[in-house]
Every structure is written in structure tokens, then in C-alpha cells.
Amino acid sequence: MRGTKRGFRRTIASLLVLSLCIAAVPALPARADNKINELQNQIKEEQKKQNDTKDQKKQTENNINSLNNVKTSLQGELNGLTDDLTQISSRLEEIEQNIIDKNQEISDTQEKLEQAKETESSQYAAMKQRLRYLYRDNNRTYYEILFSAMTFSELLNQSIYVEKLHEYDHRMLLSYKAQREAIEEMEAKLEEEKAQLDDLQAQAKEQQASIMTSVNNTKNSISAYSGQIAEAQAQADALGNQIAEQDKNIAALKKQLQEEIAKSRLAAKSAWRDISEVSFAEGDRYLLANLIYCEAGNQPYAGQVAVGAVVINRVLSSVYPNTVSGVIYQYKQFAPVLDGHLAIALANDSATAACYKAADEAMSGYTNVGRCVYFRTPIEGLTGMQIGGHIFY
Question: Region labeled Disordered — which residues (predicted)?
């Protein structure tokens, strides 16, 4: 009878455990769906970010086009200013040559003026000398010339000669004076023309300086726009690289999504054993407790139980090995196995009493994470059940 009761109790207990497990079954698809939805949302978010990046790149490229248009316009303006500068420089050279020529004309005219003045002075001196000679000593000489004539005809000739001489001297004096005055007028005119050339030169130099300032300002503007264009192009290139990186991220997320969908479908379709169907080996408790220590020794007790439950869930799932050691030592599944920490813990039996207690609870079929078969430290975008410092999913 007692055996019957014990069997009944075992049956009841099994049914209770089974009920708990069945109650937990919906959690896996829900979490898997949440993961899939979360990945889909991530993909949408990444695509949105990529679209934003593309918009930024397009805007940057439009900005580059605008800057290039302004630069081209400035270059055209610079070409026009350069032509103007060339023309005004040529004009200035012409004016400067004219000034040189005008100075030479003035110098030549001044020499002519000096010669004319000297000629006029010489003529005047000669005329005075002759007059002085003719009229000296109370005009005796003049009278001697007149009265030295032997005949009336000679007298008349002598008188005419004297008259002609006076007329010649007077005419020559007036001629030299007129020549001097003409040269002086020419000199004044040349000086006036030179003054005008000086004004033209000053204006041309001022215009040349103004154009040169405009040229330098335009060159500086072109240089500034060139710098902006280079900076914008670098930004566009960086955005292009960012878009390429986002393409990789989106592709990786899509691949991960497909893998998660496959895992979800596989988990939903896989068979699960009852805990009562599991036969534990002698060292399973020791192995599981030390793995719990390596994975969650610094976590709260609930987190330690949850790690043990993940291992047992894998044992119960047909997708994973059906033994504790097979699950724990499956290739690249648990980091402490790969980095050697589990081997050290097993050598020293580092597991605490809490770790052993958590292993016992998990091996009894208790789970506080439903049928979760994964756990890890939280990362951005990972959803699931968080206990302590781990996310279980």
C-alpha cells in the first residue's frame, strides 16, 4: 500500500512537474517571436538609419554641387578680373612709356628753349653792339658812314644800308623772340600733357590695385570653397563608407534573423523529454555545479538556478545532446569550457554550496526560465528574461 502511495505521489509529482513544464511551453515561442520581432525592428531601424545616412550623403553631394557651382562662378569672375588686370597693366605700361617719351620731349624742348634763349640773347647782344658802334661818340660813326659817300647815290645807298641793317636786326630779334615764345608754349603744353599722363597713371595704378584686391579676394574665396568642397567630399566618402558598413550590418541582422527563425521553428517542432526520462551519470551533479560556478558564481541564487535550468533544458530538448556532459562539452557552447576555467574549477571543486543546490534544483526538473536554452550578458537589441547579469532566451 505504501508502495502504491509512493507511486501515486510520484505520479502526482510528475504530473505537477509536467503541468509546470506545459505551462512554461508558450514562453519559448513568445520569446522567440519577440526575438524575431526585435530583429525585424532592428533591421527596420538599421534601414531607417541607412536611409537617413543616404539622405545625408545626398544632401552633402548636393552641397558639393552647389559649392562647385559657386567655385565655377568665382573662377569665371577671376578669369574676367585677370583679363581686366592684364588690360589695365598693359594700359599702365603704355601710359608709363608715354610719360617717358613725354619727359624726353620736355627735355628736348628745354634744350631747344635754352638754345633759343641763347640765340636770342646773342642776337640781341650783336644788335646792341652794332647800334653802339653806329651811334657811339654822338653818332659820329653813323654820320661818318653817311657823309663818307662821294655822291648822292652813295649817300642814299649808305642810308638804305643802315636802314636795312636795323630792319634785319629788329626782324631777327623778333624772330628769335617768337621762336623762344613758341618753344615756351610747347614746353608748357608738354608739361600739361605730362600732368595729364601723371593723372592717368595714378588712376590706372589705383584701378590696378583695386582689381588686384578683387583678384586676391576672389582667389581666397575660391580657396575657401575648395576647402569646403574637400571637407564635404570627405564627409560624403565617410557617409558612403558608413552606408557600406550599414549594408553589412543589415545583411548580418537578416542572416541572424533567418537563423533565429530557423532556431525558433526547430525549437517549436522539436520533441521534449520529461525529466523523469533522464538518467544522470554519477559526475553530472559535480560537473553542473562547477559550470554554474564558472558562469554564475557571482550572480544571485536565482541566476545560478537559471543557468542550471538552461543546461537541463538542452538535455530535455531533442535538438541538443541528451546528457549533461554532452551538452556542456558541445563545441563552442559554453565559454568556461573553451577558456579552461571549467577545467580549473573541476580540478579544485570550486563550486559553492549554493551552486550545488542550484544544480540539484535544475536536475530535479525545476526551471525558472521556462524552456530557454540560451543565456548571455545583455547586449543592445537582445530581449528575453533577465535574471541578475544575464538574459535568458
Answer: 45-68
> What letter represents residue 134's amino acid?
L
User: Is residue 361 within 8 Å of 305, Cβ to Cβ?
Assistant: yes
- Residue in the structure block whose three cell numbers are 579676394: 217
- The gap between the terminal CA atoms of the chain, to the nearest Å, is 44
Q: Provide the CA 11 distance to its chain's centre, in angstroms.
A: 75
Distance CA 30, CA 17 (A): 21
The identity of residue 78, as a single letter, is L
C-alpha cell at 225: 570653397
List the single range of 123-137, 211-225, 323-337, 361-375 with lowest mean pLDDT: 123-137
3-state secondary structure of 233: helix
Question: Fold match between 61-243 and 271-393?
Answer: no
**Secondary structure tally for the chain: helices H, strands E:** 9, 3
Q: Name which of 39, 14, 3 is nearest 383 in CA terms.
A: 39
Could you state, in order of their start, the residue ranges of all structural domains in the chain? 61-243, 271-393
Whole-model pTM? 0.47
Contact 380, 253 (CB under 8 A): no
State the Cα–Cα distance between residues 68 and 228, nearest whole angstrom: 10
What are the cell numbers at 373? 536554452
Q: 391: part of which helix (H) or strand (E)?
A: strand 390-392
For residue 282, the surrounding DSSP H or E stretch is: none
Is residue 188's pLDDT more than 70? yes
Contact 300, 69 (CB under 8 A): no
Under 8 Å between Cβ of 255 and 301: no
State the cell numbers at 360: 540539484
**CATH topology (fold) of 61-243:** Helix Hairpins (1.10.287)
Best-predicted range by mean pLDDT (25-34, 327-336, 347-356): 347-356
- C-alpha–C-alpha distance, residues 316 and 393, integer Å: 16
> How is domain 271-393 classified at the CATH fold level?
Arc Repressor Mutant, subunit A (1.10.10)
155's CB contacts (< 8 A; 6+ apart) are 146, 147, 149
Distance CA 116, CA 178 (A): 10
Instruction: Record the cell numbers describing residue 67, joined without a space.
Output: 559649392
> Does position 141 have pLDDT exceeding 80, yes or no?
no
Dihedrals φ, ψ of 138, to 5°?
60, 40
Residue 143, pLDDT score: 56
C-alpha R_g of the chain: 60
Cβ atoms of residues 32 and 268 within 8 Å = yes
